[in-house]
Amino acid sequence: MIEALLNKMVKVGNLTVHLPGGSVKTAGDGSGPPVVMRITGKGLRRLVSNPSLGLGEAYMDGDLTLDQGTLWDLLEIVGKSGGRTPKRGSWLTRTRKAFKRSVQSINDRIASRRNVAHHYDVSNELYRRFLDTDMQYSCAYFARPDMTLEEAQVAKKAHIGAKLNITPGMKVLDIGSGWGGMALTLAADHGAKMTGVTLSTEQLALARERAEQAGLSDQVEFRLTDYRDLDETFDRIVSVGMLEHVGAPNFRTYFETVKKLLADDGSAVIHSIGRMSGPGATNAFTQKYIFPGGYIPGLSEIVKAVEEAGLWITDIEILRLHYAETCKHWRMRFLADPDIPAMFDARFRRMWEFYLCGAELGFRYGGHMVFQIQVAKKVGALPVTRDYMVDGERRLA
């Protein structure tokens, strides 16, 4: 059983597996640095019965250990071997499978608050350890390959800010405002009158504190509010890294709400992880331990929802390997931080290491990408060429 699984999952690389009872198996073509792992009987049963969940659980619980190489080295062998390559098949078949699994991500108001608390209310201090100084927990924009994480996150905010085409005094809504970095930047650099909404109490407290410290409390307001409960209009809407938490059954509601909240000449920029392969299902480990209720959409699902909501799509940009590089920075910072071992137990640290490695793997080898989609209510709401985006970004740089 394990031999068949190894032959299926490992085509390249140099992997040695020490099994319960003392037997040893090798897999791969012998290329690259050697990786040597040991697995217990419990870990082996998990791995064979459900590889996508069992590998992470075995590592998290200490049933899979590495004598040589790192977890990333092991997972990269799987990625390079095609173990995370998006599965093909008819669009209809993939849509049906995705819909069956999307019942986990219905995300009514109660479920949304619970799911957000599971991930974001762990500890602000955890996120401070591996994010950039502005605590941007979303894909950075590496305009140059030698950028630091801080530089790339500043570039991301400038990139999105230019697309928003804000003039001073505009009312701007940030759906899923996190720790406040985007809202504070749009207020300071563009003169926007910002409203940020989040469902995380930890994020809300820190965002308000940061606004006070920056002297922007009269220009930026943060609320503990579900975006669906807002009843006012805004000139611009921005949403970064929040659509992944909406859930497939709610995509149309999401964009209908965006339309309702936009002024007649308003526009919105939505930044989200997506799949190049169309509708799919959330990775089992991520769904169970990291982002309950989360769902990464295919761009086709989002375009359909935008069309049904009656909005214009005015621009789409695909960012491919930017998030892979972002996750690499996060992973390296997480592993290098000297205080995390004292803050969290070994099981929690292994769980997060597996999550960060797996996220990077998805963007390097698994068909994940990021899309930025701009929508508007009216056909003439924005300039008819993209020059204003380029010019705005240069001014900010």
Structure description:
α8 packs across α17. This protein has helices at residues 2-9, 41-49, 51-60, 71-80, 91-101, 109-120, 124-130, 149-164, 181-190, 201-213, 251-261, 284-290, 299-309, 322-336, 340-343, 346-365, 387-396, and strands at 14-18, 24-27, 34-39, 64-68, 171-175, 193-198, 220-224, 234-240, 262-275, 312-319, 368-376. The chain has a seven-stranded mixed sheet with strand order 7-6-5-8-9-11-10, sandwiched between helices. The chain has a four-stranded mixed sheet with strand order 2-1-3-4. Mean pLDDT is 91; it is low at 100-105. The radius of gyration is 22 Å and the shape is elongated. The protein has 397 residues and is of the alpha/beta class. The protein has 17 helices and eleven strands.
Structural class: alpha/beta
Which stretches of 5+ consecutive residues score pLDDT under 50?
A: 100-105
Can you give the mean pLDDT? 91
Largest sheet: 7 strands, mixed
Number of strands: 11
Radius of gyration, in Å, reads 22 Å
Strand content: 15-25%
The topology string of helices and strands comes to HEEEHHEHHHHHEHEHEEHEHHEHHHEH
Strand order of the largest sheet: 7-6-5-8-9-11-10
* Inertia-based shape: elongated
What percent of the residues sit in helical stretches (DSSP H or I)? 40-55%
Count of helical regions? 17
Measure the end-to-end span: 56 Å
Could you give a short description of this structure?
With 397 residues, the chain is of the alpha/beta class.
Keywords for this entry:
4-stranded mixed beta sheet; alpha/beta; 17 helices; 11 strands; 397 residues; elongated; 7-stranded mixed beta sheet
